[in-house]
Amino acid sequence: MRYWKVIVLAAIVILGIGTYYIQNAFANSDYPEFHLEKVGGDEDVVNGLTFMGNYFDNYKEIGENVKITSEDTIYQSELSYFDYLTEVFQDSTIRRLQSDYRKFMRGKNEGSSAFFEDDKRLIYAGSLGIESDIGFRIEMLDKEVNETTDFQVEIPKNNINYMNVVDVQADEKEVIITTRNFYTHNPNESETEEGFHVYRINIENGSLIGDEIIYENKVDHSDKGWTELIEVNNDMEIGKEDYFVFRLDHMKEKEYGFEADGSDYFAYHFETNELKEMNLPNERLFVEKTAYVHGGVVYFLNKTKSGFEFIRYQMDDGELNTIEVPTTLNLNEGNTNVIFHDGKIFIPNSSEEGNNLFVLDEKTGKLVYEGKLSADRELENVYLDLNDLAFE
Fold first, then answer.
1. How many domains does the chain have?
2. Structural domain boundaries, residue 15
3. 308 and 272 in one domain?
4. Do 264 and 375 share a structural domain?
5. Contact at 8 Å (CB) between 41 and 326?
6. What is the tens place of the pLDDT at every residue in 7-51?
7. pLDDT in tens, 314-365
8. Are 305 and 326 in contact (CB under 8 A)?
9. CA 341 from centroid of its chain's CA atoms
């Protein structure tokens, strides 16, 4: 009887796997297949494109992950038990890093914001936590020789209750880590504060050489309102950016709850340590407008009668210009993302009305492709929400 625990455990595992397959056999009998249908433009720009998102059935309480390629539609619940354990429906950047640098990525479960990559290096900066020592674990992969160096660096705790890495940058001498910190200056007060903090680490000796709070905001929720900090930089882009961009939303009480009554945008320049408020016209860029940062430019997307427009704010000189983009398909009210890849701007757009894709040339703003995701049958009471793209 010495092996009874092993026998019971094996029976539980076998029963669990059997139950998983039986449930999937009933659950997956009527899933739709999706394919990208060209409406206009050059189809070559979407070759090898994979859509990722969530599939919602109004008859179920929660949705499930879905991946749509040119050949297949893969639902998470359709995977075998072992594929379910190994298949990762993470953002496309993390999946690419895990595929290209498997050994380096082992044990790193954070999102893309903890990584920086250029042609020569891949750098990871993870928080150590706040229970005892507070600081960062930094690992750097030299791509040319395939060698990794790592070290830890402690930072002053300064009443920090929580710290989250929101951006990593690097040059030849420094690793620059931007964090969102929550802390209490006075332990006798209920109010806490949040702020964006920039730490600079010397690559050669692992020492802390810069420690700067770039913006602080009191977290004091009341019936009258409060302010909230929101990161604007795209955390799935891990290449070099000269600026960290964020906004301050002014939350006010409205007839049916609370909503933002105004938003201020700020840009922090890593090289000069300068923080400046962006001068944006309120009549064009309304409250809580989603913005996208790429190559020193902040992009805002607005729907128009004939399609949509891109408003581009150049952070170096504050120049503002607008590009009109006439389209055949509508930019639906719903979830819209802007993804920069290989000189193109990809805009997947989701709503209950449908799922569209627009592709623009990044330099000219010209529409080079538009298409829609079509299902192999009429759909009722279901909704496909796209949230990411992957490129082969």
1. 3
2. 1-30
3. no
4. no
5. no
6. 545 445 455 544 444 444 444 457 899 999 999 999 999 999 999
7. 999 989 889 999 999 998 888 888 999 999 999 999 988 889 999 999 999 9
8. no
9. 15
